[in-house]
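mind reviewing both lines:
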Amino acid sequence: MRSALACLALVACAIPASAQQAAVDPQALFYELRVYYPAPGKLAALNARFREHTLALFAKHGMRNVAYWNEQPTDAAAEGRIVYVLAYPSRAAREASWKAFVADPQWRAVAAASEANGKLVAKVDSVFMTMADYSPPLTLPR
């Protein structure tokens, strides 16, 4: 988890400013750091599901996709983890977004199809955060 938190410190540097991003008040949003531990041999399938389906479904349900990382494990036998940050207007908005996301028939179909040969995720860690008053401003996808 410590390496995941170190990744979060890079968010401001990792997101280039562009016309498709908007500056936000660092104190205005509620953030969630999530770490997915893939089931053995499932990292590629999990990345594909995020790439092809999950990010769009998150956005559909009001979740801001801030940044995603693939952990580069130091142990050659380790598969790695997916670490990402989502942003919401509030904790209540987070709860409503996730409730709608897991109930979405499109998500249910994607999850069922992608897990036809077994679960993709063995474990999920989640940390809730707000920005410190001294954090530099960052830009987020709209």
Observations:
- The beta strands are 21-23, 30-38, 64-70, 82-88, 121-129, 139-141.
- Residues 4-22 have pLDDT under 50 and may be disordered.
- The chain has five helices and six strands.
